[in-house]
Amino acid sequence: MHAQIPLPDAAVVDEGSNLDLRAVVPDVAYQRTLLSNVVYAGHPGAGDRCWLLIDAGVTGMCAGKIRHAAAQRFGEHARAFAIILTHGHFDHIGSALKLAQDWDCPVYAHIDELPFLNGTRAYPAPDPWAGGMMSLMSPAMPRGPIDLGNYLRTLPLDGELPGMPGWRWIHTPGHTPGHISLFRRADRLLISGDAVITTRQESVYAALVSQRPEMHGPPAPFTPDWPAAKRSVRRLADLEPETVISGHGHAMQGPAMRSALHLLAAEFDAVAVPDSAKRQAQPTA
């Protein structure tokens, strides 16, 4: 069982709430959906094609919830310029195709993630013994393949983000081969996706109800490459972010958050890697 790195309530950002939208800085807000967060990048009232959506929740009612929040934040009928995916797991891309069709906009992902988004490959089977009820339930969760069709685009190889001046994408594999995080150096705002998360996603109660603030590595049952995940966490810690919006849990900020992130990077094997993965990594006699 992996350990906890608790975070103080004072580190939670969540400045106000509107239709479940939680403002982090003036031009970035996030919204908690059933299983994951989606992020809206753009100033309130920005209008049509002047904002971006990062990740797209699960399938079903999430599309309507996202459209409604976008209309309230950016204006009625304000379509996204693009959707950017941190990765392609079902709880982050479930509504991507529906929204791309509704908004007639591209969906960008890392080149290493494309096989999981163009109908070519399914993700590896999850690890049901990674700890917690969500892990035991993981074999029943969708893992693809899915096909985003002609809406799918490859992120520019130079690290730039389409429609997001001042932002860079960072390759943070481990949870998936093409996982990315997003970083804006001007205010050190990090959108980490699932490379690091701020609640224990393996617990049903924490994932769906309490979201108790804790610093964690990527969700354990769906992380097949722990050495890569460790390198990714170290890379994010080296950025010294001021604020983190993760794929699961509250947005966090300040010195306590950074200390927890550095502790996670330093003690990753002990606090993040589940015993089941350690046993699998041991050489056989």
Looking at the structure, the CATH topology is Metallo-beta-lactamase, Chain A
Query: How many runs of DSSP E, i.e. beta strands?
Result: 13
Shape: globular
- Within CATH, the superfamily carries the name Ribonuclease Z/Hydroxyacylglutathione hydrolase-like
The helix/strand series, from N terminus to C terminus, equals: EEEEEHEHHEHEEEEHHEEHHH
The top level CATH class name:
Alpha Beta
CATH architecture: 4-Layer Sandwich
- The low-pLDDT segments are none
Task: Please report the number of helical segments.
Answer: 9
3D architecture notes:
This protein is an alpha/beta fold and 285 residues long. It has one domain: Ribonuclease Z/Hydroxyacylglutathione hydrolase-like (Metallo-beta-lactamase, Chain A, 4-Layer Sandwich), CATH 3.60.15.10. Helices cover 26% and strands 18% of the residues. It has 9 helices and 13 strands. The chain has an 8-stranded mixed sheet with strand order 1-2-3-4-5-6-7-8, with helices on one face. Helix 6 runs antiparallel to helix 7 (255-266). It is globular, with a radius of gyration of 18 Å. The model has no long low-confidence stretch (mean pLDDT 90).
Sum up the structure in keywords.
single chain; 285 residues; alpha/beta; Metallo-beta-lactamase, Chain A; 8-stranded mixed β-sheet; 5-stranded mixed β-sheet; 9 helices; 13 strands; globular
